[in-house]
Amino acid sequence: MSTEVSSLPWAAAPAAGNAIGLYAKWTPALDAKIEAALARLRDATIAHGDGLVQSSSLGVEDMVITDLISRTGLPVHISTLDTGKLHPETLALLPQIKARYGFDVEVFKPVADAVIQFVAREGEDAMYRSIELRKACCGVRKMEPLGRMLKGRSAWITGLRREQSGARGDVAFDEDDGNGRRKISPIADWTWAEVWAYVDKYAVPYNPLHDQFMPSIGCAPCTRAIAVGEDFRAGRWWWEDSSKECGLHAKS
Question: What domains are defined for the chain?
């Protein structure tokens, strides 16, 4: 397991307790929500078989879903994107998943030449100069490898939740992704407190950056901690006035 830690000041700062202590709260509805999420995963596996993949961001929601998949014993493929700009804490989850669940997570990386050409043309910090350049960077580092991840698949599982942002307030449990595939979001109706209550009860591994007030963790240059009262995704591309999406979950 990697022992590296991010060099960002908010990642290095001591946390005021951990995320479990700060957020976890078991609600009366959570038992039923867990059973419903398990049923959605079973139904998706029956409907799609080998055509189904969990596209994991390695964020806490996706770690919960990986745990649910393990508990059901369902033969669901698990994949993730390594953009080349992830925090070491994020990548350290890969061996933890292997050790805990026995799953080999398939990692999709951007095309090296495309990254080299983009950086040579626009610079390492291009994402800060305009929304267009940031989205172009996401296109090279995220969208192209996602296309390879989903090639030949009929459905993918995500950790989207309605509470994450206004733009995600209408996330469905099962919807068309605009490209002829089904997008399954089995915990769409869970609250942040319920996610952490599940993590606490079942000792789910998670990114320690969540303890540093980073509820949504993406590439290191594009993620910061959030302040009290800020939106869940306020720490993503914080310098922008945008919908805080990279294109992976854009509405068609």
Answer: 9-165+178-222 (3.40.50.620)
Q: How many CB atoms lie within 10 A of CB 169?
A: 10
CA–CA dist 212, 15 (Å, integer): 5
User: Does 105 participate in catalysis according to the annotation?
Assistant: no
* Catalytic site residue from 92, 184, 195, 246: 246
Measured CA to CA, the distance from residue 51 to residue 185 in angstroms comes to 16
The whole-chain average pLDDT of the chain stands at 90
| pLDDT band at residue 10 using 50, 70 and 90 as cut-offs | very low
Q: Are 107 and 77 in contact (CB under 8 A)?
A: no
On the question of pLDDT at 250 being above 80, the answer is: no
Question: Binding site for [4Fe-4S] cluster: residue ranges?
Answer: 137-138, 219, 222
In whole angstroms, how large is the CA radius of gyration of the chain?
17
pLDDT in tens, 29-74: 999 999 999 999 999 999 999 999 999 999 999 999 999 999 999 9
How far apart are alpha carbons 226 and 94 in whole angstroms? Answer: 25
Q: What is the pTM of this model?
A: 0.89
Picking from 22, 31, 3, 4, the residue whose alpha carbon sits closest to that of residue 212 is 22
